[in-house]
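Session log. Operator J.P. requested a structure for one protein chain; no other inputs attached. Running the standard single-chain path with token output.
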Amino acid sequence: MRALAAWCEHRGSAVAESAADLDALLNTLAGWRGNMV
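Structure written below.
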């Protein structure tokens, strides 16, 4: 698996380097409220 980096201007950044990291990252993103654009 390749590393995936995610960044949000108001929330910071995260890197997923494993399937477990990606699962945690997606759960975090799903919990964010507000405008994501």
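Operator note: The mean pLDDT is 79.
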